[in-house]
# Entry
Amino acid sequence: MKNQYDTQEGYCKMLGHYLTFDYCRTANKGYPCSKVLDCWFQHFPIQEFINEHYSSDDRKKIFEPPKAKISSLSEILEQAQQRLKEKG
# Structure
């Protein structure tokens, strides 16, 4: 069951406070946060959970390295410009 640990709380190293596993499990566009293994290994067998509930392709998406900040900002700018063109 994918939501079996959802109410457990753990400390988020990225945000600096406690969150439920439910948040961490869905924080990355519906996938677990890329830091999920680092934050949850002491609470339950997180690697087994990931292997059991996510396909190989899903795991690649979860753990792919983040884009460089400049790439992310560039994509956001392009999306905003596209929306302005569509409205205009």
Q: What stands out?
A: The mean pLDDT is 92. The longest strand covers residues 9-12.
